[in-house]
Design a protein that fits this description.
It is built from 15 helices and no strands. With 362 residues, the chain is mostly helical.
């Protein structure tokens, strides 16, 4: 197993390189780069009399991972020296290949540079937003697995019963409700909308969090995450529950279960000592995808609705602003976490069923 893990870890490097390289060159053809954004802000300020550009008018210098040879066509009214200065500050006066290899060298040293439109480094922004995404993703995944696996097993054991029918109806209804719509409904019902005012509407903690005792901090934290986590998990039960049910049904009908019953083993012993180990392999296989979707992509709208500054919202804002260091930094983190979770999934396979040996497979 050790040699297999080493091979998988070594494969992470070319995979990361391929993904970063592909995205680097894709954005070359995308219109409206950061230089365009900065010049447009300056022109808007000139036209309206406002201090145009704000942070974009005095961008932080950042040379790593800046794709795009963007030549702003609409900035003809500006002094060419101003445009040249902005281009130099963003690092776009360098040749494309030089920017690319500089990005790779910086990423090897885990140096993601500075945000173009925020006065902070990419790592600082990720560290600031990471607790929100971890909170939503970890709690949502944990709740989904703790509910869906026992529910799926019970549905398999009582297949075709009234319990199986009405529980299937409920989880399908939950799956059909978009998470953002359910989040709005929760706000209306329980967060000071038209009915009850039981939960806070924004943030992970209260303003007086630091002054609370340890048990008060735990309660305040759980009080704040209740609605966002509920809104996130509503659509996650159906897939895992039905996958667990079908996996157990498939195993229950196999010959080794019939043989175990013929030997006089009890149903609980058969179910949890023999069937569980084989049926859980399919469930474990879906863990990386479930966690990634909850950790990043699935929480974007929830972060917006509940005013939570997480990684999903950070990556979305960076894409709109063409903040390339933040875009590539979050992409790098997302990809790395996904690859490591796939390796963790393989390790879990061997823990659930020791008969699986990745080391000696052909």
């Amino acid at each position: 197993m050790g040699a297999y893990l080493i091979r998988r870890l070594l494969l992470v490097i070319p995979t990361l390189l391929a993904i970063i390289t592909l995205n680097f060159f894709i954005v070359q053809i995308a219109p409206g780069g950061p230089v365009d954004q900065a010049i447009a802000n300056i022109e808007f300020g000139q036209q309206t009399g406002l201090p145009g550009g704000g942070e974009a008018a005095s961008p932080r210098a950042s040379l790593n991972g800046q794709p795009g040879d963007n030549q702003y066509r609409g900035g003809r009214g500006l002094d060419p020296e101003v445009i040249a200065e902005i281009t130099h500050r963003f690092g776009f006066d360098k040749p494309l290949h030089e920017r690319y290899f500089r990005m790779l060298w910086d990423y090897l040293r885990l140096d993601f540079g500075d945000s173009l439109f925020r006065s902070a480094s990419v790592l600082d922004l990720i560290k600031e937003r990471l607790p929100v995404s971890i909170t939503i993703g970890l709690w949502s995944t944990l709740i989904i697995y703790l509910v869906s696996i026992p529910l799926g097993i019970r549905k398999a054991v009582r297949n075709g019963s009234a319990f199986d029918v009405w529980s299937s109806g409920l989880i399908i209804i939950g799956y059909a409700i978009p998470s953002f719509l359910f989040a709005i409904m929760l706000i209306v019902l329980f967060a000071g909308g038209s009915y009850f005012d039981l939960f806070p509407l924004r943030g992970l903690t209260s303003s007086q969090f630091d002054s609370l005792p340890w048990y008060g901090k735990i309660g305040d934290y759980l009080w704040h995450i209740t609605l966002p986590v509920l809104a996130t998990v509503i659509g996650g039960f159906a897939t895992l529950t039905m996958l667990t049910k079908n996996a157990f049904l498939d195993e229950i009908r196999k010959q080794y279960v019939v043989t175990a019953r013929a030997k006089g083993l009890g149903e609980q012993q058969i179910l949890y000592r023999h069937v569980f180990r084989n049926a859980m392999l399919l469930v474990i296989a879906g863990f990386p995808a479930t966690f990634i979707s909850m950790f990043f992509t699935g929480s974007l709208l929830i972060e917006v609705i509940f005013s939570l500054n997480g990684l999903g919202l950070l990556g979305y804002d960076a894409t709109l602003q063409r903040d390339y260091p933040v875009m590539f930094g979050t992409l790098y983190i997302f990809t790395l976490v996904g690859l490591l979770l796939n390796i963790l999934s393989d390790i879990t396979y061997t823990l659930v069923d020791p008969r699986i040996d990745f080391e000696n497979r052909s």
